[in-house]
Each structure stands twice: as C-alpha cells, then as structure tokens.
Amino acid sequence: MEELAIKLQKLVVQRMPFGKYQNRWLIDLPVAYLAWFADKGFPKGELGEQLQLLYQLKMDGNGDVLRQLHHRYQRT
Length: 76
Fold this sequence. Notes:
- The protein has one domain.
- The chain has helices at residues 2-11, 31-40, 45-59, 63-73.
- Helices cover 61% and strands 0% of the residues.
- It starts with a helix and ends with a helix.
- It is built from 4 helices and no strands.
- By secondary structure, the protein is mostly helical.
- Pfam families: QSregVF_b (PF12843).
- This is DUF3820 family protein.
- It comes from Neiella marina.
C-alpha cells in the first residue's frame, strides 16, 4: 500500500516531458491521448508506468482524487 502511495504522489506532480502535451501535468492529459498510448504502447520505464496507472485511474473515474492529490503535493 505504501508503494502505491509513493507512486501516486510522484504521478500527480509529474509533467509530460515530450510531445504534443509537453510540460503539462500528467493528470491534465486527455483520456484520448492516454488511450492512444494504451493502443500503441506506453513508453518504457517509469513514465510509461505512470501513464498506464493514470489511464486506469481516469477510466475508473478517479480524476477528482488525482486533482486533490495534485493540490496537496504540487511543488511548482
């Protein structure tokens, strides 16, 4: 459970490092963009894991929870 909490904390303060949505908070990425990654393949590494988790959370209707966590842990 603690591992998931750490992953969520990192997820909600991470920005997209490349592409059309570069520099946007990951939690602000549209579901359609995440669905594209789900179809084509998520990037390798931690970013891919974060995007995959984000997609699942958004599909499960947890966008408001992500926003609350973002406000709690946002650094900049």
